[in-house]
Design a protein that fits this description.
2 copies of one chain form a homodimer. With about 350 residues, the first copy, chain A, is of the alpha+beta class. Chain A has 2 domains: about 1-205, CV3147-like fold (3-Layer(aba) Sandwich), CATH 3.40.1610.10; about 225-345, CV3147-like (Beta Barrel), CATH 2.40.390. Chain A is about 30% helix and about 30% strand. In chain A, the strands form 2 sheets. In chain A, strands 1, 2, 3, 4, 5, 6, 7, 8 and 9 form a 9-stranded mixed beta sheet that branches. A 7-stranded antiparallel beta sheet of chain A has the order 14-13-12-11-10-16-15. Strand 7 of chain A pairs antiparallel with strand 7 (about 160-165) of chain B, so a sheet runs across the interface.
Amino acid sequence: MWEVDEDILESITIGAGILGTGGGGNPYIGRLRARQVLRQHGPVTVLDPEELSSDAQIVCVGGIGAPTVGIEKVRDTQSYSAFRAIEKYTGITATALISNEIGGSNSVEELIPAAMAGLPVVDGDGMGRAFPEYHMKTFFVYGVPYVPMALCDEKGNTVIIPEAVSPEWVERIARAVTIQMGCVAVYAVAPMSAEQVVRTAIPRTLSLARDLGAAVREARQHQEDPVDAILATCPGIVLMQGKIVDLDRATTAGFARGSMTIDGLGHYHGQRMDIEFQNENLIARQGDAIVCTVPDLICLVDSDQGEPITTELLRYGFRVTVLGFPAPALWTTPEGLAVVGPRAFGYDTDYTPLNL
Amino acid sequence: MWEVDEDILESITIGAGILGTGGGGNPYIGRLRARQVLRQHGPVTVLDPEELSSDAQIVCVGGIGAPTVGIEKVRDTQSYSAFRAIEKYTGITATALISNEIGGSNSVEELIPAAMAGLPVVDGDGMGRAFPEYHMKTFFVYGVPYVPMALCDEKGNTVIIPEAVSPEWVERIARAVTIQMGCVAVYAVAPMSAEQVVRTAIPRTLSLARDLGAAVREARQHQEDPVDAILATCPGIVLMQGKIVDLDRATTAGFARGSMTIDGLGHYHGQRMDIEFQNENLIARQGDAIVCTVPDLICLVDSDQGEPITTELLRYGFRVTVLGFPAPALWTTPEGLAVVGPRAFGYDTDYTPLNL
């Protein structure tokens, strides 16, 4: 058990910005929003999954939409409305909250209703990174019900999906509603049991994000290499260091989609890497060779400061380090890969695990 | 109090095909669907609004989508699912059903859940014709709550909108969901009280449709002019008789939109009429002169048989009679015209009542 205060919040959003693989919503805006609520309501308690009581009822909340829109149309406390809407619909009183994904602003979205309702959050999430679509959660892959879910916007509109033929259908309907809501909305899913969370969540990702962020901040303070600090905290490899020389990005069908090209610098001079993204970075190639694909993590940080660079902030000329981290084990099973492997995103290739 | 059996069903769908002003869903398919349920469950009782008991709870059901799709993707008994979903969400047990619009298949959509649940229907509806959008109901114009509403498709997906900032927002969200559901879906709205129905519904439109259809069938049997029979039953005028010489129709944004041109024949030789539609016929012009606009009714029937011609069935070469009927009085108030007057459909003209 530990607490999220303003200082730890900053570390979490840096770490979750890295783990978000480019997506999950802008971490800086997420931090500002969560900070405002923490200032008003005080710190939030974090429970390890193993600390949940057997009769716990855990509601997952998350943002949905295009991160490119999320930096212009800032959310308010709609995740609290969505949380209360799902409590009301199910008639169940929640005892804790959990993040949908440890990525960007979504890593701290659950802190907002938790602080407002005076509830703890769980140290874990449903992805262990960020993914662009609703159904891409370990919860659902391993049998947790994907309905009812509630969707809220900042205007006062609420939509509940009580029945759907598959989690993909929830994604399809919720995405269409989100686009009408202005391309950014927040949702909450029916409560999970402690058993379900322990069995299906990616555990301890909030503390991992905290530790990653703390390591980056520490390195900055001592003018050490933040990339070394990241890799010492979370095992992974450097895939490329260089400069963004091309960027193609569009906000379409409710997502930020596109690709970038990075020309190597220093040790990587003469090399070139192409990365494609749908909110999150999906595949990294050097020429025809695939260097890293979903569900493994492809993460961009600013080479100097270790600051995560999310897809909505990508710009020509940025000096970046591309990091690769292996996917959580729950994703590399056949069931997991069917939902978030390269083929699930339309790539005609099998998943080859990152070579550490 | 009267009953809808198979024979009366046929009359209703002819009459509602006329009153539907081109929309409301294909009446023939609506008839087949309702007939199947009537055969299984027996006739349905129709109550005059004044016959409703003071504690009655009346659920409005209707179809939503593009009629052009509705003739290819036939609905099943989803209106029963939507009806039960709204009962479950509100916790209220309904005592009767009412049609959203006396147009095409929607005029008999409420018979399906009514027969299946063994409940009566109300002789009336929320439009007194058909209109393309959810919020265009006298119920909502005169203060009946427009939420919660439930939306169902044939696959097993259900969406509930418990809160929305306006009825137009329900339309916007429900339309986006309907497009995902395949451009055809069915909805049910939270129960109304007897007082609300008496005050805001267009009364006795189901019996009007029945009488119109019976008059057309009678005329056909005696080889009399069906158009004369229609006008003897429901006061209106002939706006044009002629041949469809041009048609432009597209299924876009969840609607069947387009326009047609009719060249006069016989007494109307040398005249030409243009009609624009969005599921329903909206405006009829001769040259620059507006002949008839919403909310007044512009209705096409086959000149020989009096068979209504809905927008999804329009074809080059059809010999048609264009009829005009005055809108119900609840629509010609400032509040009514704000929602369904010509300006509500983007026409830069005020409403001028049809000159009988």
